[in-house]
Fold this protein.
Amino acid sequence: MHTTASDGEDSPRKLVLVAQERRVELISITDHDSLGALAEAALEAQSRNIGFINGVELSVVFRHRLYHNGGRDVELHLLGYRFDAQNQPLSSALEEFGAYRVWRAAEITKRVNAVLSREGKPLVSHAEFDRLKKSVEGSLGRPHLARLLITKGIVATKQEAFDKYLVSCDVPKKQLSLQAGTALIRDAGGLAVLAHPYGDDNFSLKKITEDIRQHAEIIESMKSHIDGVECYYWNHTAAQARIYVEIAKGLKMAVTAGSDHHGGLERDRLGRIDVPSEIVDDIFSRFTVAV
């Protein structure tokens, strides 16, 4: 799940309260490039007798022969679980990514302003950008810029902001290889899990091929760099989940589940997916340790 420490709508405490209301027994916060919500959420979860796992989500790049004949990188999301949140190399790397995100957001804003100027629309001022930067508790990104454009009345929805401005004015993210991302997580005592393999058009194996049966070969090629697969995901079908469970178990990898909850009306997914009890038991045994 994601909090205000990255691109989520809810505070760490609110997420734990909602989890309790919905009778969720085990949660993990996996903010993008940020550990900022973990301490507060862990304490709140402990006070409410909810299992809690340290988490983070990293954007990594990977190459496979099925994607442009192995000549181009595809961006995937890598989940880190059960690591030491005080690990200095991991914390330092995430701080570096966060600084780059601020620079990237400023560059995107410059490009958006150039388009707005051509359209004769009000620009995003330096003061507005500075206020936005200070208001964001964690990693500054395009969703925050979208909300600013909505506030200014330039667009009506987040999707319109992306469609009209934030896609065409994008600046590349700081690249991290799958190998390097996994090393950061494992060196901090954690486990690395491939996120939503069929769940996102832009950051999943579906971008390499929509033939889910070929995903077995791709995941096997990652075997030395991932410890598990997020088989149960909010928009994976039951049939797709079964295929990924079969792949993961065949490779002796962990099977995990996640709602990718971000909050708000559009992405409120906390507790919305069904996970078999034996999978939940396995997740508890593999991933839960004293926080």
Notes: The chain has two domains: 12-88+175-287, 95-166. The domain at 95-166 is CATH 1.10.150 (DNA polymerase; domain 1). The chain has a mean pLDDT of 92. The radius of gyration is 19 Å.
